[in-house]
Structures are given as structure tokens and as C-alpha cells.
Design goal:
Elements (H helix, E strand, L loop, with lengths): L1 E2 L17 E2 L1 H10 L1 H6 L1 E8 L3 E8 L4 E5 L5 E7 L1 E6 L5 E5 L3 E4 L5 E5 L3 E8 L3
Parallel strand pairs: 1-2
Antiparallel strand pairs: 3-4, 4-11, 5-10, 6-9, 6-11, 7-8, 7-10
Length: about 130
């Protein structure tokens, strides 16, 4: 079954279903049509959330920064389209990612994501061990 974006959107709890599929391109297209993206240049949708992981689909216009965040679990960022820059605040480390690339870092690392061009990416946060 494919999740469809209808507001309010309730994140899928993976403990209740075996397989849930997401048409990420279609969802990203819909996110770009919403007021938040039009006015602020970024928008996101939590696709799944449970004790083990959270997955957020994010769309952002070039130059937009996704707020500073310090996750409780390990984080993975996967760029679907575009280009982003990941920056940590603890040691000023940074890396750039383009379509098809991913990066991961440890829990509790405060970071921010800056969109270098119009981008779509997944943020996957693991559960706290």
C-alpha cells in the first residue's frame, strides 16, 4: 500500500504493518505545493515514527537551512535530488552531498542542513539505545 498525503497526515507506525511503501517523488511534489514551502521555502513530512526510528521527507529551496537539531539517536541523511551541506556545531565539521549520496553521524550531534540547490532528502533517525 502506498501512503497518500492528506492533511493531517498521521505517520505510519511500523509496528502495526509489515510493509508500507511511499511514493517519495509524488509526496515531494505535494509538499512543494503546500503553504509552508511556498512561504518559507521548505517543508517536511514525518513518514514513519515509532520507538526504533523516525523517517522524515524534506523539501527545501536553494539557500534554505533546516533548523538546528540534536537527535536522540543516530541519524542518516539521504539526498534524493539536489545538493545539501551538513554542518555540525560541535567541531565545525561539514560535508556536501548530492543526489544519490548519504551521510550518517552519531546521536546527540547538533547539526544543521543547508540546501545548496532545490533539494529533496530523507532524514532517518534511529531509536535511542
Amino acid at each position: 500500500m502506498h501512503a497518500i498525503l492528506q492533511r493531517p497526515f498521521k505517520p505510519v507506525d511500523s509496528t502495526f504493518s509489515v510493509i508500507e511503501a511511499f511514493d517519495l517523488q509524488s509526496l515531494a511534489d505535494q509538499l512543494r505545493e503546500e503553504k509552508s514551502f511556498i512561504e518559507q521555502g521548505r517543508n517536511g513530512l514525518t513518514l514513519t515514527r515509532d520507538d526504533n526510528h523516525t523517517m522524515v521527507l524534506t523539501v527545501a529551496k536553494a539557500g534554505k537551512v533546516v533548523h538546528e537539531y540534536s537527535p536522540l539517536g543516530p541519524i542518516t541523511v539521504v539526498v534524493l535530488t539536489g545538493a545539501i551541506k551538513l554542518m555540525t556545531n560541535t567541531d565545525k565539521q561539514q560535508t556536501s552531498l548530492t543526489s544519490g549520496m548519504a551521510a550518517t553521524f552519531a546521536p546527540d550531534v547538533t547539526h544543521r542542513i543547508e540546501s545548496q540547490m532545490d533539494s529533496v532528502f530523507l532524514i532517518i533517525i534511529g531509536g535511542r539505545q
